[in-house]
Design goal:
With 182 residues, this protein is of the alpha+beta class. It has one domain (5-171): Peptide Deformylase, CATH 3.90.45.10. It has helices spanning 27-41, 132-145, 156-161, 163-171, and strands spanning 5-6, 45-47, 57-61, 76-87, 91-96, 106-111, 113-119, 125-131, 180-181. The strands form three sheets. Strands 2-3-4-7-8 form a five-stranded antiparallel β-sheet, with helices on both faces. The radius of gyration is 16 Å and the shape is globular.
């Protein structure tokens, strides 16, 4: 099943998500459906709040960048109950977009390297360091389970300059090629 993507302005995107347990109903199907939804929308990451579920689950698929970075050829991961507990002081600026904010792209400063604890799709615990593009995508998706969106990282002046675009999104004035809901 391909889920509609929740668009900016929905309360779901601003709620902090709750931990999930192995007995979550149809968990494996949910993950498969999230990857189908992500593929349909041509994105590189998707968090459960973006499909209307405030649970601490997100997926990352960096394979679209495999041509420029062959190490990402099979980079598809599931993150359950993730917790970023360390961020490098070194940061980089990169243009980000979001399936929940169609048509909006802004330069966002994020840590180059992060350390986090998480469970995978089999509820096996991991403690890992991520760097480069995977670290960026993970931080972006992690924000969603914390009730944040990438525009929250912009300077106040920049946020003010895009305020009308955000208001249009919240009112339903946008175009995209994938299913959405407000």
């Amino acid at each position: 099943m391909i889920y509609p993507i929740v668009i900016y302005g929905s309360e779901t995107l601003r709620n902090k998500s709750v931990d999930i347990t192995p007995d979550y109903p149809d968990f494996k199907k949910l993950i498969d459906d999230m990857f189908l939804t992500l593929e349909e929308a041509e994105g590189v990451g998707l968090a459960a709040p973006q499909i209307g579920k405030n649970i601490r689950l997100f997926i990352v698929d960096c394979t679209p960048w495999a041509e420029e970075d062959p190490s990402l050829a099979d980079y598809r991961k599931v993150f359950v109950n993730a917790e970023i507990y360390e961020r490098s002081e070194e940061t980089s600026l990169f243009e980000e977009g979001c399936l929940s904010l169609p048509g909006l792209h802004e330069n966002v400063r994020r840590s180059v390297t992060i350390r986090m604890r998480y469970l995978d799709e089999n509820f096996v615990a991991h403690d890992e360091e991520f760097t480069g593009k995977p670290a960026r995508v993970i931080q972006h998706e992690y924000d969603h389970i914390e009730g944040k969106v990438f525009t929250d990282h912009l300077a106040p002046l920049r946020r003010n300059l895009i305020k009308s675009k955000l208001q249009k999104l919240a009112r339903g004035s946008y175009r995209c090629t994938y299913k959405t809901k407000r």
